[in-house]
Prior knowledge:
Elements: H1 6-13, E1 21-28, E2 35-43, E3 46-54, H2 57-60, H3 63-83, E4 95-96, E5 105-106, E6 112-117, E7 122-123, H4 131-147, H5 166-179, H6 189-196, E8 214-216, E9 225-228, E10 234-237, E11 244-246, H7 248-259, H8 277-291, H9 297-301, H10 303-324, H11 336-354
Antiparallel strand pairs: 1-2, 2-3, 3-6, 4-6, 5-6, 7-9, 8-11, 9-10
Helix pairs in contact: 4-7, 4-8, 5-10, 7-8, 7-10, 10-11
Amino acid sequence: xxxxxxxQLNAAANAFQFGGECISLSWNTDGxxxxxxVCTFREGDHERRYILQRINTQIMGDPGKLMxxxxxxxxxxxxxxxxxxxxxxxxxxTVIPARDGKAYFTDGQGSSWRAYDFIEDTICYDRPxxxxxxxxxxxxxxxxxxxxxxxxxxxLSETIPGFHDTANRYRQFSKAVEEDAAGRKHxxxxxxxxxTVRAAYTKSFDDRxxxxxxxxxxxxxxxxxxxxxxTGKALCVIDLDTVMPGLALHDFGDxxxxxxxxxAEDEPDLSKVSFDKKMYDLYRKGYLxxxxxxxxxxxxxxxxxxxxVITYEQALRFLADYLNGxxxxxxxxxxxNLDRARTQIKLLxxxxxxx
Length: 355
Ligand code: ADP
Ligand code: GN1
Ligand code: MG
């Protein structure tokens, strides 16, 4: 995506139904995909913050379809949260419309933007500081699954086609290996070999008997949950770009590969990276407490395979991006995608022995 100019950012900040006058804009660099800015607006004595995001339309395609999904899902969630006595303003995202009433704004440079209410007094964790954080995130994603169980799946657009189609990810990886666009293939032969001999993971869920399509989040890493600063509990599931029909096994697996590791996703020192079976068990417990009754016994039986398949898929995706020259994930150093791929490979090798 192109660099954002100050003028472009100011125009976007003024395109939404935020009250008052913009007094500050600051970048949030937690995510790997969108450009996120925290905007503070003042009206009289009152200050209010918003999240302004330039949508990565190279990845997400049509912003109308994407925001249509997010508006439908958050409206549905708000109703459910209210019925259960929760706080719909804090327990799910609130889309702020553009001045013309649309759920997104397209600027003069062709970039599309959206805005959310900033959920105050929350913390976003990159790593679980303590096991309870991970358990809390399991409750949040389990609850998310539960609340959306009777959402009409057919009304959702597939924002990123083939997102967790592991066979498709394998084809993209093979193409990246073949093309070797960044001339890095010779540096990663053992990693390519590790992933190639495990291609059977692409077929793990081919038999869909008792593995129903559900409304899933598809990007369930810990940093996509906001925690309430006051209570320490998981409060709100965010980053709804990939909410689509999908498999609960993928949601479970994605959370595990990120949180049941002893190190960060991009840790360069592999001696620090291990699969933490206790954290796996803790997440499984929390997830099943919230949505176990919704899952089939086949799904519950396949949870360990969900973790392995998504860890494998993520290794394919990171290594493909490294080979392609870092064109998908945001990076802040040249080897970052390679480090990310290597942590996933190490985790998968350990998972294969432990679950
Ligand atoms: P990306 O798709 O790039 O990962 P996210 O939607 O996850 O973008 O947002 C990036 C970060 O912005 C989050 O990790 C979180 O720190 C912060 N954030 C996003 N939405 C909100 C919100 N409504 N309130 C407070 N912080 C938010
Ligand atoms: C991206 O947007 P973010 O940073 O939460 C990616 C996920 C990957 C993750 C790896 C739309 O998530 O699929 O699992 O990076 N999101 C998209 O950290 O590709
Ligand atoms: Mg995110």
